[in-house]
Amino acid sequence: MPRTDYSDFACSVARSLEVMGQWWTPLILRDLYLGVDTFDDLVADLGISRSLLTRRLGDLVADGLVRREVYGERDDRYRYLLEPSGRDLIPVLAALAAWGDRWQTPAGGAPLLFEHEGHECVPTVGCSTCSQPVTVETLVPVPGPGARAARGTAVVAARPLRTQSTEG
Amino acid sequence: MPRTDYSDFACSVARSLEVMGQWWTPLILRDLYLGVDTFDDLVADLGISRSLLTRRLGDLVADGLVRREVYGERDDRYRYLLEPSGRDLIPVLAALAAWGDRWQTPAGGAPLLFEHEGHECVPTVGCSTCSQPVTVETLVPVPGPGARAARGTAVVAARPLRTQSTEG
DNA sequence: CGCCTGGGTTCTGTAACTGAACTCATGTAG
DNA sequence: CTACATGAGTTCAGTTACAGAACCCAGGCG
Questions:
Q1: Three-state secondary structure call for residue B154
Q2: How is residue B5 annotated by DSSP?
Q3: Nucleotide of closest approach to B68 (CA, C1')
C-alpha cells in the first residue's frame, strides 16, 4: 500500500505536507533559495540519489513550486527556480531552521544565520494583525469555513476545541 | 539502506526535519496541540496505522518533544503531552498551515483558522528585531559560527552566498 | 581518441509504511 | 457469568519508497 495521501485531510498542515513534506523536499527548496539550482550541484550538495532527485524536482514542478529553465547556450542545461508559492515557503523553512538552532543546537553553533534590512534576524512566527510573536499559549484555533468531519479532524469535529494550553 | 540520516548535515532545516520531518510526525504534534492526545484518539483522528504510531510517539518522547503521562485511575492509560520544544514548534506548524491555506486552498476554504488575543491572526514569519514580516527578498543568509563544508553545504561552502533573490 | 560535464535513466536491494489481526487487562451490560 | 467494549499496544504479510551504483547520451576539450 502506498504511503497515505494527505490531500483529502481537513487540515492545512496535511495539505502543505503533501507537496513539501516528502523526505528531501524542504532541503531541495532551501538549496534553490541559496542558489544551488542545477541537478548536479544539488546531488553534490545534498548527497541525494539521482533517481530520487529526478522525481522530487518533477513533483515540485508539477505542483507549481518550482520551474525549470534553460540556461547557457545549449538547450539541454537546466536550472531550477522558485515560483511564488515556493518563494513564500522559504520564510517558513527559515522559522523551522531557527527552531532547530534553539532545540537541536549543533556542535559549533548555527551553520547559517539571517539578516533582514541590515540587522540580525531570527525568523519568528508572529500575528498578521498585531505583529507580536505568537506562542502555543496565545494562539487559539477556531473552526474555519472548510471545517468538516474528515481524516485529520475526525475526533476534533466531534467535540469542542480544547488545546493543550487551555485544558487542565 | 536506511533513509538518509540528516543529523550530520550542516543545516538547521535538516536537523529539524530529523526529529519532526517524518511522515505523520507534524500531524501528530498538531493533534496533541488540539487536545487529541491518547493513542486510540490519534488512530481514529488521523487514520495512521497503530504500529507506526507506536514508533512515532516513541521517537517523539525519546527526542524530548513529547512526554507520556498516566491519566485516570488505572496505571496503564496514557496521554501524550507537548514538552517545551514541542510547544515551540506549534507556531511554525501554524505558519505552514497558513501557507497551505494560501497556496493549496481546499474546496470550502480553510478548515481551521486562528485567533490571537481576541483578533484574527494569520501566522506570519517576521523578524525578531523589527517585527516586520520577512520575505525571500528581504531575508539575507549569512554564514554562522557552525558553518563548515559538510553535507548540506558542500556546494554552498565552496562559493560566496548568492540567493535566488539577489542573482540574475 | 579519450575524458569531462550536465542531466538524467535503469537496476538491485533494503527499509519504511499500510492494514488487518491479535494480545492483554479491566470494566460493564445483559 | 458470559459477551462485549475500551485503551494501548504487538505481530505479521505485502507493497512502496529510498539508497547507491552503474549506465546512457550529447557536446566540448586536449
A1: coil
A2: P
A3: D8
Are the beta carbons of B60 and B25 closer than 8 angstroms?
A: yes
**B36-72 residue pLDDT tens:** 999 999 999 999 999 999 999 999 999 999 999 999 9
- Say if CB B30 and CB A117 are below 8 A apart: no
The residues of chain A scoring below 70 in pLDDT are 166-168
**Is the minimum CB–CB distance between A56 and chain B shorter than 8 Å?**
no
Q: What share of chain A is helix, strand, coil (3-state, %, to 5)?
A: 40, 15, 45
Rounded to whole angstroms, the Cα distance separating B12 from B144 reads 11
The residues in B 70-109 lying below 8 A from A, measured between CB atoms, are 81-82, 85, 87-104, 106-109
d(CA A114, CA A43): 25
Nearest-Å Rg of the Cα atoms of chain A is 19
Domains belonging to chain B, first-starting first, are: 12-89 (1.10.10.10)
B136 touches chain A (CB under 8 A): yes
Q: Which residue of A has its CA nearest to B118?
A: A140
Mean per-residue pLDDT of chain B: 94
Do residues B134 and B125 make contact, with C-beta atoms less than 8 angstroms apart? yes
| All protein residues with a CB under 7 A from any atom of strand D | A 1-3, 22-24, 47-52, 55, 74; B 1-4, 38-41, 49-51, 54, 57, 68, 71, 76-79
Among the partner-chain residues A16, A107, A141, the one whose CB lies closest to the CB of B100 is A16
Amino acid identity, position A96: L
Grouping H, G, I as helix, E, B as strand and the rest as coil, residue B123 is: strand
pLDDT range class, residue B156, cuts 50, 70, 90 = confident
Asked if A97 contacts A123 with a C-beta cutoff of 8 angstroms, the reply is yes
Given a contact cutoff of 8 angstroms between Cβ atoms, the answer to whether A125 and B100 are in contact is no
> Could you tell me the CA-to-CA distances from A149 to A9, A11, A90, A159, A163 in Å, in that order?
9, 11, 31, 11, 18
A contacts of B45 (beta carbons < 8 Å): 151-156
